Amino acid sequence: MSLWSRTRNAVYGEITRTSMELFLTRGFDATTIDDIAAAAGISRRSFFRYFGTKEDVVLGDLATRGDLIRQALEARPDGEDPWDALCAALHSVKDAAYGSDEEMLAVFKMVHQTPSLRARSIEKHLQWQAMLTPEIRRRLGADPSDPLDVRAEALVASVLTCLDVAGEAWGRADGKVPLEDLFDAAAAAVHGGSS
Amino acid sequence: MSLWSRTRNAVYGEITRTSMELFLTRGFDATTIDDIAAAAGISRRSFFRYFGTKEDVVLGDLATRGDLIRQALEARPDGEDPWDALCAALHSVKDAAYGSDEEMLAVFKMVHQTPSLRARSIEKHLQWQAMLTPEIRRRLGADPSDPLDVRAEALVASVLTCLDVAGEAWGRADGKVPLEDLFDAAAAAVHGGSS
DNA sequence: TGACCATCTGGCACTCGGTGTCAATGAGGC
DNA sequence: GCCTCATTGACACCGAGTGCCAGATGGTCA
């Protein structure tokens, strides 16, 4: 690994750490890009060379996690009910990207309380949806070129919606109940006959 | 009705008409507020006195429609299955806010293709979710102060997600299939044992 | 009719997020 | 040492959105 890559990774981490600290103390909207740049010791312009938007600092690695979920889904047994397979795939991808539970909780609260972050978060879920739908279509035996077969999209989108609802409730409850339990309860309420 | 209200309504309609025409021809992102203001014969500043954001011109009346859906939901029989009641409430609120089907289709496509519009649209759905959840909680007999009971939120959010999926498919299919049919198919795929 | 108040309006300056450009700097390979 | 290329900071620019203020206009009361 060249020096360029190393310094780039270091700066990347420095921006992330500095930004999150500012976000969690001052609040997301109250923190400007200039604040971050000054605190991280870089120029305003360079910030945008590492992150496309301010929201990407918080939600940047969500795209990566979507790929993990897709892999987990494809690893599920072929005959399994698609809904159950989706739930299992989500279960198997624990959030290992956070330093501590308190930090993860604080981030969750911030995302769900900040409109722009909430919107971006849902956009990321739409990306996940696009990543997971083909596999569900295959399992359903749906014609890949039929734009009118909405079953796969509906299943994937609803499971992700359950995850979103569970995440919001988890934040409201200050993490006192495991996120997985909330997700299971949400999924069971929507899709009656499964775990 | 005073002259103030009448002129205000007139200006409101003029901005809406002019904006939509520009959006549908040039595209949403390619149309600036200055373009709209110039075409509508008002000042840039006045535009923001009628609409909080550019997206509100397209999605402004969605909040109103959410209230209609809530009323339709509350009018459903008390013993009805919550999921079916939600679906029926959505069915009963047809989109009467569009001049023609082609225009409605064009607006749908624009919303689903423009990230900022898509995000705002989802935010509006979150508002609907907040409006509809209390009634579903009541029907489920859930404790209103229990933040851990996610069943109602999950049901409402999933139904709205099905509507979103159906809307997207409807746009992809150029409106060749009734939106209601797509919604029913999506809802049936998610919530197995109902129409 | 004239005075008075509320409302609406346009114009200006400003903040903030995000982008294009360009010259300077420093690492990597020859 | 030299050439190339990625990275950087600085500057200018754009568009969305807000705060402020002076002026115009409608509504109301005397």
TrEMBL record, chains A, B:
Residues 9-69 form the HTH tetR-type domain. Keywords: DNA-binding, Transcription, Transcription regulation. Pfam families: TetR_C_14, TetR_N. Residues 32-51 bind DNA. GO terms for molecular function: DNA-binding transcription factor activity; transcription cis-regulatory region binding. Gene3D superfamilies: Homeodomain-like (1.10.10.60), Tetracycline Repressor, domain 2 (1.10.357.10). InterPro entries: DNA-bd_HTH_TetR-type_CS (IPR023772), Homeodomain-like_sf (IPR009057), HTH-type_TetR-like_transc_reg (IPR050109), HTH_TetR (IPR001647), MftR_C (IPR041347). Transmembrane segments: none annotated. The keyword Transcription applies. This is TetR family transcriptional regulator. It comes from Actinoplanes italicus.
